[in-house]
Amino acid sequence: MIAIEYLSIAIAILLLASVITSKAAIPLGVPSLLLFLMIGIVTGSEGIGAIEYNNPELTRTIGDMALTIILFSRRTRY
């Protein structure tokens, strides 16, 4: 149970950091994607090591699902 609690806290912190950086990107004139990439680099295994990358299959599946959602959401707007 403790691992799930730590995971929930880590996800909440990353979501909060994402909201803060997306709000900060507008006055800075920087694309928010660039700031999201910086958060990923800092929290990743090459940064402070908070997130370990050890499952490329899961990452590919999540990326494919995200790409599918993006493609279909763009299609429904026009």
TrEMBL record:
Keywords: Membrane, Transmembrane, Transmembrane helix. The keyword Transmembrane applies. The chain crosses the membrane at residues 32-51. It comes from the Bacteria. InterPro entries: Na+/solute_symporter_sf. This is Potassium/proton antiporter.
